[in-house]
Structure formats: C-alpha cells, structure tokens
Amino acid sequence: MKTRITALALALLTVLALLCSCAAEKSDEELIRDRIDSFMKAYNSGDMDGVFESLDTKTRNATKAIFSMAEAMGGMLGMDGVSLSDLFSLSVAVAGDDVLDVTVSNINITDGENATVETTLSLGYGDLVSETDYSITFAMVKEDGDWFISNMIEK
Fold first, then answer.
1. Which of 31, 65, 99, 111 stands the most exposed, by the fewest C-beta atoms within 10 Å?
2. How confident is the model over 81-136, as pLDDT tens digits?
3. Residue in 95, 91, 85, 89 with CA at minimum distance from that of residue 126
4. 3-42 tens-digit pLDDT
5. What is the CATH number of domain 26-154?
C-alpha cells in the first residue's frame, strides 16, 4: 500500500512540475515583443552586433556580407580601418537620446513559423532632425524556438 501511495505521490509531483514549467514558458507573442524590444535597445545603444542578433540567420548573414563589401570599398577609397559598426555607434552617440522607438500595434502569427508585426517606428535625432513616425511591418520568422526579424517594410 505504501508503495502505491509513494508512486502516486511521485506521479502527482511530476505532473505538477510539468504544469509549472509550461506556465513559465513565454508565448510566441511575448517572444516577438521581446525581440522587437532587444532590437530597439541595441539600436539605441549603438550596438550593431546586438542589432545583427535580432535578425534571422539568412538576413543576418546577408547584412554582414553587405557591410563587409562596403567596408572593403571604403578601404579602396582611403578609409581603411573605418567600420560601418563604428560609424553607426558614432551616429547614435551624436544623436544623444534614444534614436529609435518602436510601438507594436498588432501581431499576426500566420503559421507558427512566420509572423507580421505592425508597428509605429519613430526616429528622432535630438535637434539634428525632427522626430518622424513611420508605419513599419516587421516580417519575422521562428528559428530554434525564438523569433527573429527577417524584413522591415514601410507601408
């Protein structure tokens, strides 16, 4: 009898542990919002690597290749040693306050692996440029259980 009670108690504890672990996982919508937020924070801190980390693998690799080609061309023009990442960080530092603000208005997960995120994107460069709002749709893809930006389309 004690063996049955012990086995039943262990089974009940296992079920409770599984329920608790499932409740702790974030929803796709929360993961998408987190990714947009990490993209915005990386952009505002001038962290190009952080911006790259917000992109899906295909887009990240293509963007890095474009950066490498542009930097190589800069070297041919006598701008050796100047990286686009450094220029990006400098431009954000010059701007001062947060440059980018993204407000999510709608998330549409189409098939569990792709999503579109409708946003209002605001760019402000302190006194250099007045703040401008854009309606931007982020195309996102799910890779290894997390969401990444694959494209940004202005409406």
1. 111
2. 556 666 666 666 666 666 788 999 999 999 999 999 999 988 776 665 556 788 99
3. 95
4. 555 544 444 445 445 444 454 699 999 999 999 999 999 8
5. 3.10.450.50
Angle between helices 57-76 and 84-95 (to 10 degrees): 100
CA-based nearest residue to 63, from 32, 96, 39: 39
Q: Could you give the CA distance from residue 148 to residue 19 in angstroms, rounded to a whole number?
A: 27
DSSP assigned state of 128: T
Identity of residue 10: L
Return left, alpha or beta for 43; rule: phi > 0 is left, psi -120 to 50 is alpha, else beta.
alpha
Question: Would residue 68 be called left, alpha or beta, if left means φ above 0 and alpha means ψ between -120 and 50 degrees?
Answer: alpha
Contact (Cβ atoms closer than 8 angstroms) between residue 44 and residue 52? no
The single-letter DSSP state of residue 83 is -
Contact 115, 109 (CB under 8 A): yes
Domain locations in the chain?
26-154
